[in-house]
Amino acid sequence: MTRFGVLLFFGALVAAANVIGGLLIARPGTTRRDAHSLRYLVALGAGFMLAAIFLEILPEVADLWIKRGEQAEVSHAVTGAMTLLLAGYLLIHLFEHTIAPHFHFGAETHTEAMLRPSAAYTAIGGLSIHTFFDGVSVAAAFTVSFKVGLLVFVAVLLHKVPEGFTAASIILASGRTARQALMATVIIGAATLGGVLSVALLQARMSEAVVYALPFSAGVTLYVAASDLIPEVNHLEHKNPFVSLVVFAGVALFYVLHLLIDAGG
After folding, report:
1. 72 Cβ partners below 8 Å, 6+ apart?
2. pLDDT of residue 138
3. Of the candidates 215, 262, 263, 245, which has an alpha carbon nearest to the alpha carbon of residue 39?
4. For position 150, what pLDDT does the model report?
5. How many Cβ atoms from other residues are within 10 Å of residue 10's Cβ?
6. In angstroms, how far apart are the furthest CA atoms of the chain?
7. DSSP string, 23-58
8. What CA–CA distances, in Å, run from 28 to 31, 70, 112, 164, 179?
9. Which residue, of 6, 53, 75, 175, is most buried by count of CB atoms within 10 Å of its CB?
């Protein structure tokens, strides 16, 4: 399989996970058990993503940027990489809390209040930008190596189902139909695939694109893990303290998968 084919395959998988998340709430016979089970997936994804960022992605970013400059410019190279990481983090903060302030991540059904349709559509627009950069993160990681790509793919995949659930719940809360809710998950899934394709096409035209895309996407991923998922876990732990322990299980899962990939390589 070509590199483009690999990116398309894994991009399609993470995009499909968004739709699966929507099906958990926007289908006949949906039960609250589906929503409750997502809290563990959120916690597992948070731990895995944090481990992937600090133990796999950031070391790769530092290595890429240091190799680009002379040894005397190491500090400048690292500063440049961290600037892009901060930019990625702040971009998602901007969209979630300024452009789309009605968007809240997590397994929410919004039954306590109906949202205005305009607010729901704004939230889906902001979430689509968010998922676009999910795709950028996956594609940029695969461009570095298959090992890094696979680890980031798993990290992103773990929060894709709750992401789709959130999108569908927002649309249902605005009074729209289950079919429209599922269409919203298709839109955010397509945005994910769009992020994958953007990096794939850019990489084909500029070999050093990944040097800039990887730290930027790391900032996006860090925001998802630290500012979206962890606060959601902290909220859920009041109902079930065991949820917080699942974060550590996510870190352990990263280590196990990391060792298995190294052994297989």
Report:
1. none
2. 92
3. 245
4. 93
5. 23
6. 63
7. HTTSSTT--HHHHHHHHHHHHHHHHHHHHHIIIIIH
8. 9, 61, 21, 17, 11
9. 53
| HEC string for 84-148 | HHHHHHHHHHHHHHHHCCCCCCCCCCCCCCCCCHHHHHHHHHHHHHHHHHHHHHHHHHHHHCHHH
Q: State the Cα–Cα distance between residues 87 and 181, nearest whole angstrom.
A: 31
Q: Is the C-alpha dihedral spanning 221, 172, 111, 30 positive or negative?
A: negative
pLDDT recorded at residue 200: 84
**Cβ-based burial of 200 (10 A; exposed 0-12, middle 13-18, buried ≥19):** buried
Low-confidence residues of the chain, pLDDT below 50?
31, 102, 106-113
Question: Which pLDDT value is given to residue 110?
Answer: 42
Q: Report the predicted TM-score, pTM, of the whole model to 2 decimal places.
A: 0.82
pLDDT at position 12, please?
A: 94
What's the one-letter identity of residue 166? T
Provide the 3-class DSSP secondary structure of residue 167: helix
Alpha carbon distances (Å) from 199 to 125, 147, 189: 21, 18, 16
Look-up: residue for tokens 């979206």?
A: 228
Residue found under tokens 């719940």 = 169
Any idea which residue has 């968010």 for tokens? 130
3-state DSSP call for residue 178? helix
